[in-house]
Amino acid sequence: MTDADDTLHVRAIDAFIAATGASDPEQRATLLSRALAADVVFWGPLGRGVGREAVEDFITEVVQGHPSGPCRMVRTTGVDAPEEWARFGWCYEDAAGRPILSGTDMVHVTPAGDIDEIVVFAGPLK
């Protein structure tokens, strides 16, 4: 992997994370269009979804609609990107910065720098 590849991965992942915190729907859609392929496959804790709209619905309902109030997703690790796959650690924090849930996501990044598959692993392995 080259540094340019790593930059593509980090840029896409960080745009995705920024989208999770965007309260303005237009801004969130813009960030998701920078990060995700239109036909992204999203494997989340609630099942499988396809397309940016499925990811946006997850963000609106689960991240921003959390019972603790709006939460913020934070990348907690570097991006480990062997070739076109990458993984990174994350944490959902409440408004006071207290961790609610953490996990690891694995993403597939196209040569153009778009994430076309996201697999969410929430919580620790037992």
Automatic annotation (TrEMBL):
Cross-referenced InterPro entries: NTF2-like_dom_sf
Entry-linked Gene3D superfamilies: 3.10.450.50
Protein name (database record): Nuclear transport factor 2 family protein
